[in-house]
Recover the amino acids of this structure.
């Protein structure tokens, strides 16, 4: 069983060993409808004890849905992926949806100007990059952060910048950049000023997402 929450998942949750991330393209303006279908599917299934949170986001343009599921162990997640109709089977909610991909958080940095407790994130820039293997993926992330620090410094006191979270897929072939910002305007300004020149050469700046719903296990 689960209950809905307006809270955002804690990306650096020490209990989270692995996350399952999926994107579902939708018709323009239909993202909320698709997200509702995903949430309804999640509510209909049995909640495994290793599942920590299920969150769905909708893109600012209304043409994409992103799912982010935190698990405390890899084997239960893999078992869930094998079961048709399980909570991990997004295609049961949205026929034709691409299969979600397991990732692990590799590196996370937080904005130095953020207060404690941090403000609620409202904008989530997301980008995916291909990699040859896990070693190459780690080198890519390290070089990306090193390049940022070389031009912007290590302080990272960006207006509205809460965190940048770099994930690497379990098979090492994909890097996921998942950031948290106070407002979409803050995120856009930072992307244009800092990341766009770099990311353009690496495959684009990705999409901006907004939080739609989080499901947590019932206590």
């Amino acid at each position: 069983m689960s209950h809905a929450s307006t809270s955002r998942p804690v990306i650096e949750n020490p209990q989270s060993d692995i996350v399952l991330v999926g994107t579902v393209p939708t018709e323009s303006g239909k993202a909320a409808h698709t997200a509702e279908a995903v949430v309804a599917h999640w509510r209909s299934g049995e909640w495994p004890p290793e599942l920590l949170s299920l969150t769905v986001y909708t893109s600012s343009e209304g043409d994409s849905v992103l799912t982010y599921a935190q698990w405390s162990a890899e084997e239960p997640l893999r078992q869930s992926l094998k079961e048709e109709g399980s909570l991990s089977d997004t295609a049961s909610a949205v026929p034709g949806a691409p299969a979600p991909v397991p990732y692990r958080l590799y590196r996370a940095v937080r904005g130095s100007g953020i207060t404690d407790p941090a403000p609620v994130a409202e904008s989530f820039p997301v980008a995916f990059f291909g990699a040859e293997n896990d070693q190459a993926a780690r080198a890519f992330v390290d070089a990306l952060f090193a390049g940022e620090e070389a031009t912007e410094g290590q302080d990272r006191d960006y207006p509205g910048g809460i965190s940048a979270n770099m994930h690497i897929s379990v098979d090492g072939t994909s890097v996921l950049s998942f950031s948290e910002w106070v407002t979409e305007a803050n995120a856009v300004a930072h992307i244009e000023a800092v990341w766009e020149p770099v990311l353009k050469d690496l495959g684009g700046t990705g999409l901006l997402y907004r939080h739609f719903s989080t499901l947590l296990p019932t206590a």
Observations:
- The chain has a mean pLDDT of 90.
- The CA atoms of residues 101 and 194 lie 28 Å apart.
- The domain at 2-102+209-217 is CATH 3.30.70.100 (Alpha-Beta Plaits).
